[in-house]
Hints:
mainly alpha; Multidrug-efflux Transporter Regulator, Chain: A, Domain 2; 2 domains; 9 helices; disordered C terminus
Amino acid sequence: MTAKTWKIGELAKQSGITVRTLRHFHQIGLLTPSGRTESGHRLYTEDDVSKLHQILSLRQLGISLKIIRNLLENPDVDPLLVVQAQIDVVNERIKLYEKLRHELEQLQTLLSFHQKISIERLMQIMELIQMNDRRYLTPELAEKLRTLHGNLAEETKTKLKKHLLRVDESQKQNLGNMIFKERE
């Protein structure tokens, strides 16, 4: 029985990314297909698909492709921690979106009754919108990402310090200290 393989177009379609992205991953050495067809088309195996999942999970956490390559080459990285960090990020975003939805529903109600909206309320809503756009991280989530960081090699830690997740400038320093402070 032959193992399941995917051509580049099939994998792109099923994974929700573009063929161009897969070609780019191959070009930079991040995801090299395990085989080729007789006519030279890329063939991806189940192991390749698993690696692609790891890449996409780490990208969702805001990690650069260069750092991801270093992480995937590091045998000390626990994929379970990466998946848990991804789950935590998704849960945090859900909470933020639910809070934003609640605020917008209240705003809708006030507007439907032609009520005056306070500037403070509008500022709160704008802040929630910006938090969603900036991929805001709570201190609890930053702690979990620090746990993931604690399992990395020193060289990788140094590189990660330069590539903080995209957060508000006012939070970068605090978040950096939380995630990257040396363990005592």
